[in-house]
Amino acid sequence: MPDDQETSPSDAELTAAIRELESGAPVDELYRRHRSAVLCYALACCRDRHTAEDLASEAFTRTLQAVRSGGGPEAAWRPYLLTIVRRTASDWAGTARRTELSADFEQWLANADSPEAESGEERMLRLEENSLVLRAFRSLPERWQTVLWHTAVEEEPVTKVGPLLGLGASGVSSLASRAREGLREAYLAAYGENASGTDECRRYSSLLGAAVRRTGRRTNKDLDRHLAECERCRSALIELTELNERLGSVLPAGVLLWGGSAYVAARLAEAGASAGGMAVAPAAPHGSVPLDGGTGWWAKAKDAPLSSGAVAGSVVAAIGIAVLVAPMPFGDDGKGPASSPPARSGQPPISVSEHPPPVTLTATPSQAASARQVGHSATASGPASEEPAQPSPTGADLGPVKWSGSLRNAGVTAMCVEPAGTSVVQNPCDDGKGQVWETFSFKENKDYTWLRNAATGDCIDYLGGTQEVYDNAANMRIRMGPCRAVGDGQLFRFDPWWGESDGSYLVRAELEDGKPWDEMQLGMLDWWEGNDPPPEKDAPVVLTYNYYNAPRLRYRVDVK
């Protein structure tokens, strides 16, 4: 059988054929390659499938018109088409078709601050210009854009990406490596051009890339001093670190600006369903998506957190497969990756130590979370003094307790987390032992801890959970179970909230690409404050995404 890479023309070759007006076959092939992805994103922007198909068709039409006029994409068709979907939807928002757009997309547009005289097109161009990630991405050669999008964002195998570029598997891998390095350099260049704050900012911008790569080496003291004083450069360092570590999350958020997380989740779900011969029907009980014991195909919904504040959600059917598009977690408002918020120095650390050690601000891959809080430690490793090791009566010996305390909901401050049988719920805070949670230091990564209940000795467990949709939001049920020394499906980290100074934390599950809980965090099932009040007793606690930065999805720690 001939190799596809030898017989299939690349996207660039198909583009050239369209411009030469050879036949309609190149258009048909490009439509076949990209229609599913374009429709997937369009569905997140629209209220129904019929409207989404209209939006996808118009995006293709506009792109083909641009190509035939000598513009448009050469090789990077996928990200270009998705951008046109967003721009077209934004144009519709100023017409009678705005009623056909999803409420979440409309809200995102409404939240994008804009001058009164600004048109929809001008607003989109301004938001795109404000995204350093997008500017860096667009400055790359289109072949680099293509390989980054298809390998890092859509996680397609090199054998599938090869035909798009006219390359073999080894060529794709080599090109992807060069493209990643090129994106980092392009980001630094874009930041340097934009570093108009002070001459010092411009001088130190060239050192940020070295700081990200310099894992385990001595830091630059002058750079550390500047980062401690400059919130803008500190935020850029964190964003660059996330770009280096979690490209598959940061890139869709920075390029699409809205709905990147939902798009990634839906595309990976579609790919997994196709590979496994599965279909997730819209009428499935409770909208649930079975997860394969933590190793299944629902990999992520990131921008996740990616950048802050919008939700995109709908049940989708794409190319004969019913695909669940999870509402987008905080992160696609066009203001930069939400996983890289500016740190607030005033928030106290989670620690019983009177003098927590300072954090070195030259971030390394293992220190990205710590860099979010300047001058304090926000990891589970906490205090200098430790309680003697207390083996769990139902599970493994986790080592010495670092600190223990209650988890008080930031949105409903009278309620604390506690177990109820095998469930995890919130009830009125009572200072009882059942509301005390013990933390430890996970040996392989000290930023993580188990959450073991002081009364039962069990740990909060999310391994083998089921992704569900409740009130148009994705969540995963959790339970109480014996603590496991390996930590898989039981680890959490405490990320300081960077918004209001309320001392709260995002209690996040283990951050790991490919895991169904990646980017999820503890929160109330009834997180939306616009709905009815949550149950006064046994209010369910789940893993979910940081929707709209809702206070009910954060916790304050009352150290005991």
Largest sheet composition: 6 strands, antiparallel
Helix content: 25-40%
Number of alpha- plus pi-helical segments: 17
Amino-to-carboxy terminus distance: 68 Å
Strand content: 5-15%
Secondary-structure-based class equals: alpha+beta
List keywords for this structure.
alpha+beta, 6-stranded antiparallel sheet, 560 residues
Describe this structure in words.
This protein has 560 residues and is α+β, with helices and mostly antiparallel strands. It is built from 17 helices and 16 strands. The protein has helices at 4-7, 11-19, 25-45, 49-68, 77-92, 103-111, 120-130, 132-138, 142-153, 158-165, 169-194, 199-205, 208-213, 221-229, 231-245, 247-256, 260-276, and strands at residues 314-318, 321-325, 404-409, 415-420, 423-428, 437-438, 452-453, 459-461, 467-470, 473-477, 479-481, 492-496, 504-509, 521-524, 539-544, 555-559. It has a 6-stranded antiparallel sheet, with no helix packed on it. The longest helix has 26 residues, at 169-194. It is globular.
In short:
With 560 residues, this protein is an alpha+beta fold.
Topology (elements, then pairings):
Blueprint: H1 4-7, H2 11-19, H3 25-45, H4 49-68, H5 77-92, H6 103-111, H7 120-130, H8 132-138, H9 142-153, H10 158-165, H11 169-194, H12 199-205, H13 208-213, H14 221-229, H15 231-245, H16 247-256, H17 260-276, E1 314-318, E2 321-325, E3 404-409, E4 415-420, E5 423-428, E6 437-438, E7 452-453, E8 459-461, E9 467-470, E10 473-477, E11 479-481, E12 492-496, E13 504-509, E14 521-524, E15 539-544, E16 555-559
Helix pairs in contact: 2-3, 3-4, 3-5, 3-17, 4-5, 8-11, 8-16, 9-10, 9-11, 9-16, 10-11, 11-12, 11-15, 14-15, 15-16, 16-17
